[in-house]
Amino acid sequence: MQGACHRLPRFATPDGLSERPDCCSIRNMDQPLFRRARDCRVSRISPADTNKFVMAVDPVADRAPFMSVVEIFETGGRTPLHHHDHAHEMFYVLEGSGRARCGGVTYDLEKGDTLVLPPGMDHIVENTGTGRLYCLTVMVPNEGLAELIRAGATMALDDSDCAVVAANPS
C-alpha cells in the first residue's frame, strides 16, 4: 500500500526516513524538480467529475514523498464526501471562493485562505462562487490520489485557467 512506510516505525531510521528503497521518502529524489505549469499533466479523474487537476508534483513520476496539484473546481463543482486514512491534505485558495465541510464544521473559503485536514476526517470542498475555484492542494503522503489523477482523461488548460495557473499560456 502506498505510504505504508510512514505508518511503520520499524522501518524508520534515526532521521525519520525509511530504509526501504521502494518507499515514498525523500531519499528517492536525488535532483531538484522544476516544472512550468504549461508542462504539467492536466486531467479529470472521470468524465462526469466537475474538477480537473494540474499535476505540479507527481509522486509516481517525480519520486516525491507527497503530491501537489492545482485543483480547478468548475462553478458549482465539488469533491465527493471522502477522507484519507493516513494522509494530511492542504488546500490553499489561489482564486475564487468556496466552502469546506469537515469535522462537523463549515468554513467559507476565499483567495489566500489555507485549510489543512488531518488523516481520517471526512470532508467536502465545493465551489460556491460565480467563477472557477482554484486551490493549490498538497497531500502527504500521496495515498493513491496521484494514481487516480494519472489514470484520468487528459485535458487542457483554457485561457481562464492559464491566467491563474501559468505565467505564459503558450
Which tags fit this structure?
seven-stranded antiparallel beta sheet; 170 residues; 2 helices; three-stranded antiparallel beta sheet; single chain; mainly beta
Could you describe the 3D structure shown?
The chain is mostly beta strands and 170 residues long. It has a single domain, classed as Sandwich (Jelly Rolls), CATH 2.60.120. It has helices at 145-151, 159-165, and strands spanning 41-44, 51-57, 67-73, 88-95, 97-102, 105-110, 114-117, 123-127, 133-140, 153-154. The chain is globular and about 40 Å long. Residues 1-26 have low confidence and may be disordered.
Summarize the structure.
This protein is 8% helix and 34% strand.
The CATH homologous superfamily is called Jelly Rolls
Average per-residue pLDDT, rounded, comes to: 85
Largest sheet: 7 strands, antiparallel
Parts with pLDDT < 50 across at least 5 consecutive residues: 1-26
Main sheet strand line-up: 7-4-9-3-2-1-10
**CATH class category label:** Mainly Beta
How many β-strand stretches? 10
Structural class: mainly beta
Distance between the termini: 38 Å
The proportion of residues in beta strands is 25-35%
Helices and strands, in N-to-C order? EEEEEEEEEHEH
Number of helices: 2
Helix content class = under 10%
List the helices and strands and how they pair.
Blueprint: E1 41-44, E2 51-57, E3 67-73, E4 88-95, E5 97-102, E6 105-110, E7 114-117, E8 123-127, E9 133-140, H1 145-151, E10 153-154, H2 159-165
Antiparallel strand pairs: 1-2, 1-10, 2-3, 3-9, 4-7, 4-9, 5-6, 5-8
